[in-house]
Amino acid sequence: MPLPTREPEVAALARAAEQSAGDLLAPSAPHRLADVVPAPHQVQPDPTGDWVLPAEAVIVASAQPAALAVAEQLAQLLRPATGYPLPVTDATTPEPAGGIALVLEATADLGAEGYRLDITTDGVRVTAATGAGLFYGVQTLRQLLPAAIESPEPVAERWALPGGTITDAPRFPYRGAMLDVARHFFAVPDVLRVIDHLARYKLNHLHLHLTDDQGWRIAVDSWPKLTTVGGATEVGGGPGGFYPKADYARIVSYAAARHITVVPEIDLPGHTNSALVAYPELAPDKTAPPPYTGTEVGFSYVDPADERTYDFVADVLGEVAALTPGPWLHIGGDEAFKVKGEVYTGFVERVQRIVADLGKTVVGWHQLAPAAHLDGRVLQWWGTNGEDPTTVDAVRRGARLVVSPGNHAYLDMKYAPDTPIGHDWAGLIDVRKAYDWDPGTHVVGVPAEAVLGVEAPLWTESVTSLADIELLLLPRLPAIAELGWSPRASHDWASFRDRLAGQGPRWTTAGITFHRAPEIPWSTTPTIPTQRNVPQPDTATHLTPE
After folding, report:
1. Is the dihedral of CA 382, 386, 387, 393 positive or negative?
2. pLDDT one-digit tens code per residue, 204-231
3. Residue 228: which residues within 8 A CB-CB, separation 6 or more?
4. pTM, 2 dp
5. Number of neighbouring beta carbons within 10 Å of residue 343
6. Residue 307 annotated as catalytic
7. Which of 153, 281, 335, 349 is catalytic?
8. Which residues share a beta bridge with 401?
9. DSSP 3-state assignment of 257?
C-alpha cells in the first residue's frame, strides 16, 4: 500500500536541509546593518541572522489601513527589480513566516515616528505604533538590500539582508526641504519626484514657496488673475505656470501617502510683484508694475494701509488652508525692505491672526520675530551668523525655530566655484559643510527644546530642470536629513561619508542625477545590473510619481 503522506514529508525535509546548507555556504549580506542614511538610533547586528528574500515571499501586515498601505508601498518598491509577485495580506497577529511582517502595535514604545526592524533567518519584522513609523522602517529595509533593488526591471541578484535589530526614532519632529516653484515653475511630476527623494531619507515636510515677484503658482478662485496674469512669468522670461487646485491636491495627497506634510508659503507683504501685476489695487500707488523676470529682491509690497489688502490676504490664505490638511501656513515675511517698523509688525500681527482664525499655525521667516507672539508661532531662521538677539527674544516669548542657516542648509548654494548653477552669497557649501553643524545649538541662546527641526531650502533663480534640482539636492539632502533624524552623538563625518557613498549606486541604478562630490569615496564600479528575462506579474508596478 503506498504511503502518500510520507514522501512529501521526506521531500520537504530534504528541501529544508538543502536550503539550510545553502544558507550556510552563501555569502553574507552585501551591507552591514549600520549602512543606513540617516544613521539609526540603535543597531544590534547578528552575523548569524542574515535573510534572503525568497521568490514566494508574502508581505503580511496588520489589518489596519495604515499598515496595509505601507505594505502595498513596500511591494511596489520590491517587485520591479526582483520580479517576484510579493502578494500582500493581513493578519490579526502578523508573522514573517519566511517573508516580511509589518506590525502596527499601538502599545509599542517607539514614539510617533519610531520603528523596530528585526531581521532573522526566519524573515523580517517591522514594528511601529503608527503608519509613519512603519513607512520609515521600510525605507531602512530598502537601503539594506543590494543597490540593484532600485532597478525598474528584473535583475539577477541575491536579495540578502544583514541580520540583527534596528531600533530607531527621530531627533526632531520637523525634518524638511523647501522647493521654490515661484522663480521657476516646476510641473507636478517634478514635484512628486522631489517628494520621493524626501521620503527616501525620512524627511517629513515639503515647504512649497508658491508665490514671489516672478510668478504666482497656486489657483485662488476669488482672485483668478493671480494665476492667469501673475502666473504667466518666471525668471528669464519663460512661460511660468501654476497649479490648478486639483494639481495642488494631487501633490498634497502624494506627499501624505509618504507621511510628508506640505507647508504652503504665500510670501507677504514683500515678494509680491506678481500679485500687483494682476491686481493693481493692492499696490501702494494703485498702479500695476511691469512683470518681473529678474532676481533682485525687496522692491515690491502690498499696501499695508488699505483694508482691501487684508481682504486679499484672508481670501488667499483661506483657500490655501482649505486645500492643505497639515497644520502650517507659511506667510513669508522676509526682505520687505520698504515696510518698516510698526507698519511691518502691525501687518504681520494682523496676518498672524488671520492664520490663527483659519485653525492653522503660522510659520514665517525669522524677520517676523519682532512682531507680537501668537501661540504656536514658528520662525524659520535662515541667517549665516548664529548670533541673533531678536530671534532669541522671540523664542523667549514662546516662538519655536525651524533652522535653515544659509551657509549650511541652502541647497541653491554652489558646491565649489565651478558648480555650473547656484549662488555663493552665503558661501560655498560642500557636503561636509552641509553636515558639520548642529541644529540644536546653532543659534546662540536658543535652547535645543525650542528647535522644532531643520529644513533645507532650494531656491530656483538658476534652476530650470529636474536634473538641476537633483544636482543641487544630492548628495547634500541626506546630510540635512541625518542632522534632523539621527541622535547628535551619532554624528560622525567619517562614518557619514562612507554611508553616503553607498547611496551613489542606488541613485545611478534609479536614474537619479547627483553631484559626484570629490570628498565622498564613490564606488568606481559600474552599477549596471544584469537583467533577467522574467515577466513582471500583473501586480508589479514601480513606485514612481503618479
Report:
1. positive
2. 999 999 999 999 999 999 999 999 999 9
3. 278
4. 0.93
5. 15
6. no
7. 335
8. 379, 451
9. helix
